Amino acid sequence: MSREQNKVWTIRDIILWGENYFATKKVEAPRLSIELLLCNLLEMSRLDLYLNYELPLCAIELQTLKSQIRRLLKGEPLQYILGWTQFLQYKILLNKKVFIPRPETEYMVNFIINKLKSQQTQEMKILDIGCGSGAISVALADFFKKASVLAIDIDTNALLQTEENAKLHNLDNIKTMNLDILKQIPKETFDLIVSNPPYISLQEYKRLPRNVLKEPSISLTDNADGFSFFRCFASIFPKILSNVGSFFLEVGWDQADEVEKIFTEKAFPVNIEKDFQGIKRIVYSIRFLNS
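Request: output the structure for the sequence above.
Response:
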């Protein structure tokens, strides 16, 4: 951004400059990134930006924007700078800098809803293992309005963030619990268990891009081979699934077949669903409900 003291920077100027500058710095989706920074800064929609194309920014706004751009170029995820992300139709706050939900998880939640939509008005107990931002819990609690959702995580920041997002969306059917699922299990049983656990192996984790490494490592890797949680789930699900219980798990791009093997060795009949990229992404079991 120009250092000329008297230059007036309009929204149009900044979008055009930002798109070009971010492209040279290899920022992902350069035009969208500068638009989202402006939307957040000016409390406008993207449409509003273009309806106010010639609106100049004041000195304080420019200073704030420069600071945010510096953070982005240092590898901080855009979602952390904005303080939120979009997950399906929900705004999910990320003020606690928890794991940033991905499109693959949106796909899994949509898949769950489509599979179990006949249960929408029924009372059920749902467990979200490793709730992170609470995105899964929010989406399921909103769709299954008569359900009670227990969101568990080992990270207290995740629990606080889940509670904040539940409050944002006026959902009073979500409760949180600090619990390490590898060491202890809930005392109740559940009709639906959902999890997007840390499934990145330690070896793969060390090769992740620097912006991903800004996210909590505890949400990304099991510090082992990436299968620790799936082995645990196969052992404990018989104890915490109700006799009409189903589960849905997000897995890594090359993990589905091995996860299927882990569960079938425990006499769980499971299915595999591919995501929007054709990758085997969801391992699930609907044992007593019509699929």
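The chain has a mean pLDDT of 95.
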